[in-house]
Amino acid sequence: MARYTGPKSKIARKFGEPIYGPDKALERRNYPSGQHGLARRRRKISEYGVQLKEKQKAKYTYGLLEKQFRILFEKAERAGGVTGEVLLQMLECRLDNVVYRLGIAPTRAAARQLVSHRHITVNGGVCNIPSAAVKAGDVVAVREKSKALEVVADSLRSNRVSKYSWLEWDGASMSGKLLNVPERSDIPENIKEQLIVELYSK
After folding, report:
1. pLDDT at residue 157, as a whole number
2. Which residues contact 56 (CB under 8 A, 6 or more apart)?
3. pTM, two decimal places
4. Which sign does the torsion angle of CA 169, 175, 177, 182 carry?
5. 92, 108, 169, 188: which has the fewest C-beta neighbours closer than 10 Å?
6. What's the average model confidence in pLDDT over 139-164?
């Protein structure tokens, strides 16, 4: 299973945002890492550099590698509509992201692990593919024998699901439903998707 396994605080500091969740290192030093971290901030970034940085931010936020991200972008292009918005909607509808948004896992990386370790079901059947597309009306649930997992119980106590209007959570059955594909205004990630479209259009 291909995934980014490098340092996370370093990446968060590079973008100046807690893209992997709360980070004490970022709170203490909210400037890029490295010997010239503070000086680097004053340097003017080229248009290409700004576009590339935005693409890298989206990739790291959703936990995709370059090839996966490029394939998803091409799918978004073919789907019709506003390419940037469609791309973000596709990223939001990935199974690992839906598990994270429902509050079953504390981070997207943890959600990806729960899925790949067969703790999650979609419409009653076990699905171990983190990139699987969840469609409107699909029910994502914690597998019966996995409901006692400590990581799931701890994460659900935070009850983050109330923030997202496109999801419905049933605490009794530990299952959630994707009511509809989220609109761009409903997606909270600070990503300028138009810059990504411009980058790939070169």
Report:
1. 83
2. 15
3. 0.83
4. positive
5. 188
6. 84
Residue 52's contacts (CB-CB under 8 Å, 6 or more residues apart) are: 199
Q: Structural domain of residue 110, as residue ranges?
A: 92-182
Confidence of residue 67 (pLDDT cuts 50, 70, 90): very high
Same domain, 98 and 73: no
* Burial status of residue 26 (CB atoms within 10 A of its CB: 0-12, 13-18, 19 or more): buried
The predicted model gives 104-132 an average pLDDT of 94
CATH of the domain at 156: 3.10.290.10
Write down the pLDDT at residue 114.
96
Q: If pLDDT is split at 50, 70 and 90, which confidence band does 158 have?
A: confident
Using CA atoms, how far residue 48 sits from 33, 76, 83, 197, 200, in Å, is: 21, 21, 19, 12, 11
Rounded mean pLDDT, 114-121: 96
Report the domain count for the chain.
Answer: 2
Cα separation, 130 vs 176, whole angstroms: 16
155 with 194, same domain: the answer is no
